[in-house]
């Protein structure tokens, strides 16, 4: 069954209303003396309570911009954000700065890529955790301290009493990321956004942090948006994966179908580069030949065409539309494995 | 103004070239050192061990720097001298002990004699005691002028750095105008306005000149903080704007300000001497101060140059001490000079 509405919310088999519902999110940066740059282009996805949703794509495809737009943390000037980001039916894009400040840290938490630079170097770890509790739970610093201690314990920081008084530079990279997770989850937000939380860490630490995240979101029933350039990271974590290319959604699917049967050539390329024992490092660094610099404009073609192994003539002439089919969404004229292609272009739709 | 290599190097800086813009560039360069993150990893190198704080790594380099150590030694010696000088001085620096030897025509300045190794000044007061005790007032002038300038600069710089928009524009416009006036001329004008010159008018005149420097410096380093990851992370936790500014931006912006304060201690002492020399010093000379002693020595500069020479040497050594210390601090905190 093929529907013609693009990227609409899929009907949740479990019937839960989405917690976060992103619709047609478009972020455009103004550039001096150049055409505006569309970093995120008509992106839609849902996150249901307790669900883990992956946003995957290579560097520069708009993952961080998407997360900052959801959090209301994009710079005040120089960009326009359209579409809607509804949390419990409230459009975050229309909220005031103050309303967003009250929401951040209490309803939505976020953790970042580089744990060292994301911590304030001159404030002890404990103080940085109590700060959030004081801010959102109205606790005094004194009453927040045992809660902060408990939180550090929960994220697996050994000897939390000592760590409370230590400064970020005294912790290892993995411990710093744990501390940041403690801050983000201190007020038990219903939603956590993790923007490449393990990219700056060693491989062994990466696995620990991912396991911790999984454990915590399950225990606290927190919905998680997991952002990564590495499909290997989402493999064990996400219920649903959104693959982005050049600011647009190119494929979406539940974890198993997507991994076992990728339809989009870009997803296929990313998957073949997931590190395995025999995977060679150079290949992993450049999963798909070519670079984003080769992209064609989405407005008149498939941006991926110059790098695509399946490209056909039509790919350079028309814009493939995102077509939903059951739980899958695909934006491609000539998918992998010769799937029956919906072969619809955005031009056709108009 | 002749253009210098600094001017030539950075074509991006707006505004007319000249003394003011060189001063600004120097301030902005120093402010940029606050943007440096901690110990710099080699590209791609990730290690999971605990890192070293910026201060610890700076201290490790400073400890081995002879320039810093010399500056530090001079500074410590000066401060200790200022504290113990009252007990060290052989005589009361205010007492006209050799006044009966002073005769305006034949012997205006009594020479050395037993108990008075450097002789006396024009009122017969022991020159050695005045030099020793003078360190105290000199330290007070330097520290007070620096602190007042720092306080004013902190307030203006924090306001400008915290609020973009018109607050920032207005403050920075005033600051830039002040910076474009040569600092000694500005200090001279301010102290000339005071109806009755005193040590405090002197201190305030010197402090006011430093305010725009500290303000621009702090604003620059706060702007660099604004785009830091930890500020974004704090905003992502919903931290209030005031706490972001005061707890997350300000403390991390202070490095360059502290360096500048060390350097200003030197300029403040020199400026105090210059203003005294120009007749705007403290008229009350019961408590000696080196700049004041130097300023007053000009009457006798041809026949008794030693009156000027001794305080001048003291000022030069102390200013050198602060400058050596400040410059090596600046270098230690500057990521460009980091290995
Ligand atoms: N503040 C900004 N101003 C202009 N362009 C930006 C800004 N932030 C991000 N971009 C651009 O948007 C694109 C997407 O960036 P980003 O979301 O950070 O990518 P990633 O998927 O690696 O997180 C990049 O090409 C980047 O250059
Ligand atoms: S539309 Fe064409 S170029 Fe784009 S991914 Fe599909 S096959 Fe490749
Ligand atoms: Mg990113």
Q: Topology, pairings included?
A:
The complex is a heterodimer of chains A (350) and B (339).
Chain A (H helix, E strand, L loop, with lengths): L19 E10 L7 E11 L4 E5 L6 H9 L7 E9 L2 E2 L5 H7 L4 E4 L13 H13 L3 H14 L5 H5 L8 H13 L5 E5 L7 H18 L2 E6 L2 H5 L4 E6 L2 E7 H6 L4 H8 L8 H5 L37 E3 L2 E3 L15 H4 L1
Helix pairs in contact in A: 3-4, 3-6, 4-6, 6-7
Chain B lengths: L4 H5 L9 H14 L21 H10 L2 H23 L38 H36 L3 H15 L2 H11 L5 H28 L2 H8 L4 H9 L4 H24 L12 H7 L9 H28 L6
Helix pairs in contact in B: 2-8, 3-13, 4-5, 4-13, 5-6, 5-8, 5-11, 6-8, 7-8, 8-11, 9-10, 11-12, 11-13, 12-13
Structure description:
The complex is a heterodimer of chains A (350) and B (339). Chain A has 350 residues and is an alpha/beta fold. Chain A contains twelve helices and twelve strands. Chain A has helices at 63-71, 97-103, 125-137, 141-154, 160-164, 173-185, 203-220, 231-235, 255-260, 265-272, 281-285, 346-349, and strands at residues 20-29, 37-47, 52-56, 79-87, 90-91, 108-111, 191-195, 223-228, 240-245, 248-254, 323-325, 328-330. The longest helix of chain A is centred in the middle third of the chain and has 18 residues, at 203-220. The model of chain A is unreliable at 1-13 (pLDDT under 50). With 339 residues, chain B is mostly helical. Chain B has one domain (71-101, 108-337): MetI-like fold (Orthogonal Bundle), CATH 1.10.3720. Chain B contains 13 helices and no strands. The longest helix of chain B has 36 residues, at 127-162. Chain B starts with a helix and ends in a 6-residue tail after the last helix. Mean pLDDT of chain B is 84; it is low at 1-16 and 37-47. The interface between A and B is medium-sized, with 38 and 30 residues. Residues 29, 37, 39, 57, 59-65, 75 of chain A line the site of adenosine-5'-diphosphate.
